[in-house]
Amino acid sequence: MGFVIHLTDEIADGKLQALVSAVLDDPALSSGWLTAPCSRSGHHAYQGGLLEHTVGVAALAQTLTQWHPRLNPDLLLAAAIVHDVGHIRAWRLGATFEQTEEGRLLGHLAIGHEIVDAAARRVGLPDGLRLALLHAIGWHHGPPAGQGPGGASPEALALWRTNSLEVGVKARLEGPGPVDE
């Protein structure tokens, strides 16, 4: 978690940094960052898997902004840190990982959208930046049905690809099974 906090401190835009801090510090979510998995049987399917995946995606995104300086580094890093926050409410931890009713019916993308949008409004994130952040998060699994990648902002495309790269490499390292998001 210390590395995620360090990455958050790297966000120069005060409003985006406040938003990420608000999500990280939310008492309803804070313990979930340390315990939630990313999946039941695919990538990062263990306690703390969400946090490990978040650090991996954020570090890749940060590196990509150095290679492509026209990307908005604050927007991409903020999106990378909060892109999967919906997993915290989508999983119930017990002897195994089971989806919550909310997770089963809405999925982590919709839950995460709600969490991030509420935090953005609380910290007064300007609407254009709020929408750009939500757009990037909404794309982190790729284009919505019926759309090609041409509809993505550069930051949304970068988040999709860094997320996919991190998931694919981790899944291959964990074994030859299917990649499950």
Q: Taking all residues together, what is the mean pLDDT?
A: 91
**Spans of 5+ residues with little confidence (pLDDT < 50)?**
none
Output the radius of gyration.
Answer: 15 Å
Total helical segments:
9
SSE arrangement, N to C? HHHHHHEEHHH
β-strand amount: under 5%
Report on this model:
It is globular, with a radius of gyration of 15 Å. It has 181 residues and is mainly α. It has helices spanning 2-9, 14-25, 30-35, 49-67, 73-82, 87-90, 101-123, 127-138, 154-174; strands at 91-93, 97-99. Strands 1-2 form a two-stranded antiparallel sheet.
Q: Which descriptors apply to this entry?
A:
single chain; mainly alpha; two-stranded antiparallel sheet; 9 helices; 64% helix
Quick overview of this protein structure:
The protein is mostly helical. Helix content is 64%, strand content 3%.
Topology summary:
Elements: H1 2-9, H2 14-25, H3 30-35, H4 49-67, H5 73-82, H6 87-90, E1 91-93, E2 97-99, H7 101-123, H8 127-138, H9 154-174
Antiparallel strand pairs: 1-2
